[in-house]
Amino acid sequence: MKQLLIFGTILLLLAGCSTKDPAPIVHKFASTCDYYSLQQARCLDEDAFLQSITPYKVVFVGDHHDSMAAHKDVVALIDALSVRGYCVALANEWFTPKENILLEQYAQGELDKNTSKALGWKKRVGYDFNLSEPIFDAVIKHKGHLYGINMSKAFKTLISNQERDAMSTKQRIFYDHLDLNVTAHKQMLSPFFSHCHHHKKGESTEACQARMYRVQVAWDTMMGEESAKLAAQLKEDEKLIVFVGAMHLESKLGVNLRFARKSAIPSITLLPLPRSSKVLEADLGSSDMVYLYTEETQEK
């Protein structure tokens, strides 16, 4: 009887513990770091950072769209890889593959002097072109290549509305194979989709959340698969930087996950982190590395 009581007590304790979410393992490091490797659990200077990423053909770089300071670090990365003899191809979310011709014209200096207008920037991006232009110009300066990897707004709308009959055969195949069941990804994004800003007439909150998540997965999948196609074409001296919003790469569950399902080419993920305090934190598994930047308000 005594043994049964002990066994029952243990079961109750285990059951009580199982209801609590385990605390994440957190890396803590000084904001004086320029780069921090979550793989090596240490700060890296520029040389060590470059040595760590050069073995990889594909580098996923997270973007904080409205930060010129973060973008300066991306320009520095493009410059550093180019100086080391690599030709950098930049894949970004602001354009589709069909617009690669337009991007080539941009690289060749064939567009109107009002580059922003010629690229249709205001129609596609809600951020100042001056924030992104230095990155594009760095690639062009070093004779690199610019590529679009996103899906068209028209296709996004069809996916959002589940208008399968209006899709082309290729679009239907893509739509039918969307994996909406990555639990960790759903959990990560659930706080952002808890409130629907644009309910359709008669649409429930649950239906709106499902629609938003469906589009997010389609977005990540398209960019991951298009990146895999570009990676397959890389030459020996080329590297592909996939430059997309940081949330698309967080915890390696977005574009980078969808890429890995289509390509065996080694890749590494680098996310931005502002120097907001003397000691910074990053959850284990959130990225392979982080690059630290000083926020504009602190630069003044």
Describe this entry's structure for a reader.
The chain is α/β, with parallel strands linked by helices and 300 residues long. The protein has a domain at 151-238. Helix content is 44%, strand content 18%. It contains 13 helices and 10 strands. The strands form 2 sheets. An 8-stranded mixed β-sheet has the order 3-2-10-8-4-7-5-6, with helices on both faces. The protein has a two-stranded antiparallel sheet with strand order 1-9. Helix 3 (68-83) runs parallel beside helix 7 and helix 8 crosses helix 11 (205-232). The longest helix is centred in the last third of the chain and has 28 residues, at 205-232.
What's the SSE blueprint?
Blueprint: H1 2-18, E1 26-30, E2 35-37, E3 42-44, H2 46-53, E4 58-63, H3 68-83, E5 87-92, H4 100-107, H5 115-118, H6 121-124, H7 129-141, E6 145-148, H8 153-161, H9 169-176, H10 183-189, H11 205-232, E7 238-245, H12 255-260, E8 267-274, E9 279-283, E10 289-293, H13 296-299
Helix pairs in contact: 3-7, 8-11
